Amino acid sequence: MARRRNGVNISTNEDNFESVVNAVRDLSRYSVEVGIFASDDSFYAMIANVHEFGMKIEPKGQFLTIPKPAAEGRKASEIPGLFRPKGKNILAVKDGDGIKIMFVLVESVTIPERSFVRSTFDENESDWGQFMEGMIEKVVSLQMDARTLFEQLGARIAADIQEKITTLRSPENAGITKENKGSSNPLMDTGGLRSRVTWKVVEGNA
User: Fold this and answer.
1) Is the dihedral of CA 166, 169, 171, 173 positive or negative?
2) Could you tell me how far CA 165 lies from the centroid of its own chain?
3) 60-114 per-position pLDDT tens digit
């Protein structure tokens, strides 16, 4: 017996008919979620949200304190001899006859939108649909179960999002950010954001 469902040819016989029906039914039991999950790492989920949608950060006081490489990861309170030169929006320490700038003082910081999740979906949705169609044929021919299909789809989507993080170059980092990172890639620093992109297969009611 041959049938066509959702554009996929399904061939069955009396021996495997029930198994095929169950396999097709299982396709509606599962879905896949892809991204950086707060339940796994709330800090990187916050960072992902900031880059995905952009954000304006304003200080609680008068200025935000932006570190320079010379600060070596220290807070202003951890650096002895720190002072603000008259008329300058910097914090510095004495360095011989001159000064060494440790922080730049700014009234606000605007982090531009750098979508790496939504933009990847927009760019790859058609390819993912074709990939899934090929996997559905394997499910209905009993070469693969439905959960494996969604695991493979999740892995494919996560890999594409990771690639977008690696290759995205615009909008560029601000000059001081590039100086601190030593890189012009706006979404890559330690690789922590990229490595936390993952997927979860979710089972619902059939």
Assistant:
1) positive
2) 7
3) 889 999 999 899 889 999 999 999 999 999 999 999 999 999 999 999 988 889 8
Closest by Cα among 129, 108, 121 to 58 = 108
Cα 32 to Cα 76: distance, rounded to the nearest angstrom: 44
> Which residue type, as a one-letter code, is found at position 14?
E
Helix, coil or strand: residue 12: coil
CA gap 186, 116 in Å, rounded: 11
Structural tokens at position 124:
């790859």
What the block records as the tokens of 83 is 């002072």
- The enclosing H or E element of 45 equals helix 42-53
Which residues have C-beta within 8 Å of that of residue 48, sequence separation ≥ 6? 35, 36, 117, 193, 196
Q: Please say whether the beta carbons of 52 and 116 come within 8 A.
A: yes
